[in-house]
Amino acid sequence: MPDILDTIIERRREDLARLGPTLGQPIPPVRERPVVPFLTEKGAILEIKRASPSKGDIAPDLDVASLCRQYRSAGARAVSVLTEPHYFKGSLKDLLAASRSDTDRERPLAFLRKDFLLTEEEVEVSYRCGAGAVLLIARILETDRLMSMAGRAAELGLRALVEIRTREDGEKLRAVCQRYPVLAGVNARDLATFTIDPLVPAALIGSIPVHAVYESGIRNPETARYAARLGFQGILVGEEAARRPEAAAALVSAFQETQADRTGHFWRSLAERRDGVYKADGEATSANLELSAGGTVETASRSRPLVKICGITRLQDAEGAAELGADMLGFIFAESKRTARPELVREVRKMLNSKRRTASSVPLLVGVITELSSPLAKEAQRLCKEGILDAIQWHGDPLLESPVLHELPHYRVLRIGALEDIELAKRLINSGQVRILLDTKVEGFAGGTGAMIRSELLDAFLEAIPDLKTSGLWLAGGLGPDTVGPVVDRYGLELIDASSRLEAEPGIKDPAKLEAFFTELKGAASRVKQVENHIGVI
Known about the structure:
- This protein is α/β, with parallel strands linked by helices.
- The protein is 40% helix and 16% strand.
- An 8-stranded parallel barrel has the order 1-4-5-6-7-8-9-10, surrounded by 7 helices. An 8-stranded parallel beta barrel has the order 11-12-13-14-15-16-17-18, surrounded by 4 helices. It has a two-stranded antiparallel ribbon with strand order 2-3.
- Helix 8 runs parallel beside helix 10 (248-256).
């Protein structure tokens, strides 16, 4: 796949050499408005965006002044203006029109120039055109140049929004923020491929030393709340705001009204754990790593997928799975041969806490429920509210909207059995779910059947919904020592959920099968890595 960012930057260098830092546009000799402080409080940045390389035309004929007024009414703290001409159809004319349209002296808008800036002169041009902040993309700038451009912005009274996405980007950010007052932007979108992964911001936010903005992928109130729950100071909303400005107010209010919470903590923990798993040899996790704002899929060697061992009913099984490297332990709170006792979950939590000083990490604990009102489900909810369980795995209606689920950290299971389920999967993804777990649909059973999803059906799902693979595929159903290798070879996978094929009998794990499972998994992941290295994926 061609690197879209490299293509944009090559064209940008040609334009700068031919047209200079104004890109051939007439601009004022001096700035026409005072500098407005940029995002000093929590808030949303809505974007003037005409097009993008991934979506084509978004709002090519938008009226800048009208859109700025709509954004103000929606509650935006600031407005981002995309000025890249070739792939986003923007220009400095849009930035000038935006800054000149803002005549409110009581609550003026701050404007961010969003572009692929490469020189200090472009920072000064941004200042003269009315910007209060400039986007500096760490990936495309060497540390010295990034430092120089951030310094020039500070001299002019502008705020630099330093965009990061990888470990190397984070190191540059740390160097810059030691000298200049900058903000961080974490882009959920990979600018090389324009695919979106909402776990990337979750993995980075905990190690960022300054306030941070969540960029890309905010398309509904649920994703806006997700960013707030992670602890971000701001969100930058592009396509959704430009295409449907009438819907922007709902996004802004959802973000403003939501605080960092246990749901955000769960996704941060899981993302950081993925980051740790994606270190080669040693399997050290972020619990013991001094992160420098990074370690995403793009920058670290993937050793194996995340592993959830489900159907735990005995303390020794939980301990054995944890020692082998399980990332999550699942406890079933529904009528089953594998039903867990609340006392067991408390014992497991106590056991794991006692090992925290010596273990590099401890598994996250997940309660599996199939309904909301049963006594067993209510026990799981209580344990989750207390923090004994880290999250809920919802096996009921995947589209259910319930205050009970929304107040608890959770993810949803989609059981698939036919091509007709593709539309249900699309609806679930579009609802703003960070991840969904695909399981095998067997009528009359909620799970634990030992049956695998048919490969031709899974292939059809991934072809119809590429986001299932590019953002991280979670898979359950029939995965054990004898089946997991070929599945990992074929699909890669981010998370594997295994239960019945690891048992001596229902609810009782077989230590030999557990060990063989992790051994086979490590070997399969190593084969995937060798293939990826060979073809240049990583």
